[in-house]
């Protein structure tokens, strides 16, 4: 597979997001199936694996460590802190954003144990805790770099302004944010800021949480599927968004690729500093996604895709009102 720069690392142009193997889109798959997906990715040339303390409240890091630690020299490992599961008064873990330096350091130590490694190549602040100056959180991450616990620092879901403030404290190797044909927020300012600072941009949800793979029945989502709370997947909004799919699928057919490959190839054509990290629980889907690296799109096809699916043609916000308050990205 072609290679791209992820901060100081050269990695496969397409990586693997490891949220799906334990969290987010319904009931988690078996440990055996997660292992099959992780090893198939490694065998197929993926050298960029992305996880987080939040995913399954540590389960994803544990699985990645158990399956891939023996192959540690073959890939670049990314994980995240600043958003974890913390027990509430009933003892049930709930998602908490906490960017205090001591919390970041403690989360890193726990991650190293779960991942069965002595160093994490790229460690992101998963969310900027707006109660803590970004300079303080990044300062804690810089201490982890100096201590040899992590090799580089990333930020997730931040604005260009926050990126610049953080970069002034310590070089930021990568920014990770949702980016696809139907989520264009990074195009406002962050992509340009990344170019200027030499920061890589990692695009999560590159196939629009499955939307760009083809028609789906949103009423049949599992009770634990996070898309149930996402406005774009409400039955009313989805019905309007689904009108975009027939012409989109026609373009994929014309190009000679799958719908998922078309979505990922579009991202790869947006800039050499952009690295998509699709996630999946299926080996077949994984291999299909990776095939996007070989898809060439003409200027005409790129223009038609841009004209078809963009901010003004997609209905519904990507997050709920509450979730929108937790991110720091610019909004159209």
From TrEMBL:
InterPro entries: Aldo-Keto_reductase, NAD(P)_OxRdtase_dom_sf, NADP_OxRdtase_dom. It comes from the Bacteria. The keyword Oxidoreductase applies. Residues 14-309 form the NADP-dependent oxidoreductase domain. PROSITE patterns: PROKAR_LIPOPROTEIN. The keyword Ribonucleoprotein does not apply. Keywords: Oxidoreductase. This is Aldo/keto reductase.
